[in-house]
Amino acid sequence: MPYFSRLILLLFCLMVLVESRKPKKRRWTGQLETSKPSHLYKKNPDMTKIRQGKPQPLLRVDDHDFTMRPAFGGPAIPVGVDVQVESLDSISEVDMDFTMTLYLRHYWKDERLAFPSASNKSMTFDGRLVKKIWVPDVFFVHSKRSFIHDTTTDNIMLRVFPDGQVLYSMRITVTAMCNMDFSHFPLDSQTCSLELESYAYTDEDLMLYWKNGDESLKTDEKISLSQFLIQKFHTTSRLAFYSSTGWYNRLYINFTLRRHIFFFLLQTYFPATLMVMLSWVSFWIDRRAVPARVSLGITTVLTMSTIITGVNASMPRVSYIKAVDIYLWVSFVFVFLSVLEYAAVNYLTTVQERKERKLQEKFPCMCGMLHSRTMMLDGSYSESEANSLAGYPRSHILTEEERQDKIVVHLALSNESSSSRKKGFLKGQVGLRIFQNTHAIDKYSRLIFPASYIFFNLIYWSVFA
Fold first, then answer.
1. CB-facing half-sphere around the CA of 375: CA atoms within 13 A
2. Where would you find the membrane-spanning parts of this chain (predicted)?
3. What is the rounded CA–CA span in Å between residue 444 and residue 456?
4. CA-based end-to-end distance of the chain
């Protein structure tokens, strides 16, 4: 048994020895192996990965407390500001605000950011460094909405010079309030302002000023608005006082806008004028054409109401009268008076016809006279006029009491000689005949209405234009 175990152990050792002497198989790499010098297999060292110790940063941000302003405890730090207006996007009369896109730049000196430089070149950073250092806390007074553009990255630039001078620039769109006066609308000019101020630092800690005076504000020459003409951009500055915190430096970007009138001439003034002129057409229509004159008057009144409603819908609900309100409401009054004029004509026509029917019933014989004429039956008619009634019964001649009534009997006028004799008396009764003859009301309206409206337009445009 021991012999057998020794034999198995010997065979195992022989097998291991044979396997160890066999050549090892090499993996195929698809390339022919050639003999190369052994020194080429040695890899050259990468010098970029060799560090000669930890480098020292140029800006020692971690060595200072940037929660405090520069020169804390000393005089106020001056911060210069300049602005480049990129676009004036919109002006809203309803919300009383405007939207502007601009480049806002700040200039100040922070010796904590100074660094040595042989070439005196500045270093430029993006918005990531802004969160680590002190920057002015400028905000827009009376701002409703504002944001910093972030496409494709945050539009923030920080440039630091070797002596510690800092340039901080950002691209902002802001919507701010603008107090507008619409008393002369749409013949008005509006002055709006964008106000900048430090939120936390008073004038004792931070002095905010325009870096180059009026030259600190630059605008793009292509800026334009559909309804306004931009007349002027200028800058101002003053101190603002808050009872709780104190005095602050405040900068103003002022711009004046003048409204284009042509749009409102086409949309408001011309339609209103045409409606007034259209209402005058009824003066030339026959007074008996009731449907035509009534429908024309109602149409013009409703159209004027629609124009007034449309203008007020696009305007803020102010408590004072605007210039356009004066024009539209005066035009509405003219249109409404033309409707009342026909109502008066129609009423007087009805009264006149009623009186004529009564006279015809009272004097039926006169309706058959061949040579009809107008006669004043007041006891003063001539002998020839009396002879003309000789063939008629006595009962048809007026009594003394009836002659005292001085009634004018209107018959068809065909005898010119008789009417000429009565001309002097008829001149004294002009006022009465205007109301008795409804055609006269229309004739006078054809002159009075246009003349009054032209006179109103002359006064309106001389005052507001």
1. 20
2. 261-282, 294-314, 326-348, 447-464
3. 18
4. 134
